[in-house]
Amino acid sequence: MKIFIDASNIIPESGGAVHLKRFLINLSQKKTIVEVAASKLLIKSLNVKTTTNIKFYKNDYLDKNIIFRLIWKLFIFYFYLKKNNHSIAYILNGYYFFKPKNIRVAIFIQNLLPFSKNGLKMSNIFVLIKNKILLLLHNSSIKRSDLTIFPSR
């Protein structure tokens, strides 16, 4: 089994980085092949060694701003999955745009604020717009994904 993890928006020292590090440490003893797409800064901060079953995918688009990461996610991500015969895509930011054929997709949604009506009422207009867009992206991704993970106690 080949898993491709999209950690393109995860920043070091965040809850997503901690989750990813623990996930990779647990997989290091298994025979599953894992490839992680992340910024060079995140890869360095994870301090997880590249092994025969854990590899890191680096791309200049992942080290730049959100516009470049969206271009990567819209165009390069989809074709890379198909080209390299991954069986599962694990997406840590909770949304994706296209469902690749014959590839199972699991999404991990950490940011629950877009789903909260009370939390959005107290936000400024920019945060409100951002969360409305995220809500649309999350809802469409939940409908298309094979598995949705919400962190809980």
Shape, please? Answer: globular
Largest sheet: 6 strands, parallel
User: What's the total helix number?
Assistant: 5
Measure the end-to-end span: 29 Å
Helix content: 40-55%
With strands numbered from the N-terminus, the spatial order across the biggest sheet is 3-2-1-4-5-6
Total strand segments: 6
Structural features:
41% helix, 17% strand, 6-stranded parallel β-sheet, alpha/beta, 153 residues, single chain
How would you describe this protein?
- With 153 residues, the protein is of the alpha/beta class.
- It contains 5 helices and 6 strands; from the N terminus they run βαβαβαββααβ.
- Strands 3-2-1-4-5-6 form a 6-stranded parallel sheet, with helices on one face.
- The chain is globular and about 50 Å long.
